[in-house]
Amino acid sequence: MSNNDPIKVGVLFSREGVTSRIENTMLAGTLFAIREINDAGGILGRELVPVYHDPRSNPQLFRSLAIRLVQDDKVNVIFGCYMSSTRKAVLPVVEQWNRLLFCPTMYEGFEYSNNIIYTGGAPNQNSALLAEFMSSRFGARVYMVGSDYIFPYESNRIMSDFVHHRQGGAKVGERYVHLDAQESALTPIIRDIKAKQPDFIFSTVVGKTTRMLYQAYADAGLDPQKMPIASLCTSEEEISEMGLRVAQGHYTAGPYFQSIDTPRNRNCVALFRKLFGTQVQPNMSWEASYNQVHVFADSFRDAGSDEYHILLPHVLGREFDAPQGRIRILPHNHHSRLYPRIGRVDADGQFAILAETPTGVDADPYLVSHSFDDWSTRLRMSSIDDTVCE
User: Fold this and answer.
1) What is the C-alpha to C-alpha distance for residues 310 and 365, in angstroms, rounded to an integer?
2) pTM greater than 0.90
């Protein structure tokens, strides 16, 4: 390979299947970053070229396409995966062939691989904050609803630990729905929620069933001012799909919201709109997908190569001025320093940011050093009334 040859990277996000809507935003964030890099002259004068395959939300297809990227397409770096089941399908591939996967989704934690860079949030950066915030404002009796795969099960286990720590904390219900569930699957769950009257509902439902859950909640006449849904994964893209009447007043924890009012974020969103239009709603998964491509590009410039052993030392410790704030790839665990926030869906279909950390928080994926009292001193509260939905 000459010094002028294009740099090929693998891209695995779904355009079809149950999680295609959110994964399409991740694909857009990835292609946006690649466009920015190439428009600025590429990497050391070389064009960055995505080699894309559609895994259609299928873990087995994620695995086989990762093998194809490595063996046939000869890529050293892959950007991809949304569901934890798909990340775990790709993990043995990158470990076997010693390639590097950049994964942009917040997840349940309790994982480490030398061959993965985790740019989404870990439980101490989202679940802990959400438990503290919701319990202190609505109460600590929680009903959990999730999709039927590893991330919801593990996230609900972690949330149970957090709420049980608080006075009066209890898990009053826990239900799961298939990723391809029909509307009728939510009816008995909403009926049970109405009967048990939790203080809030913790949702780890993903994909197409997200809209169904919020729609069923609204159709049942439940009130987000009294018993809201709080989520780690309901973003601006899902809000756009379900509509404002259904979404307004509910909460999400994440490091990025489109509504962050900084020049860096405003300029980034404006350029994305100019280049890619308005079909995709920037969200936390979009932003992490965008960030990690720039982290790779900056690391390649220093390393001069994307071969694993040459590139990795330049990725670890790398910082990037992201739309959410200045992130850092942590050398000791391959996760990221991020900026946890709490947002509530407002009358414009955006997230009003109610609480945030003024400085970044390092990922602690195994909750080794996390204290249950961390967030009582670390949060900066907004002046927006956080209990009344206009």
Assistant:
1) 26
2) yes
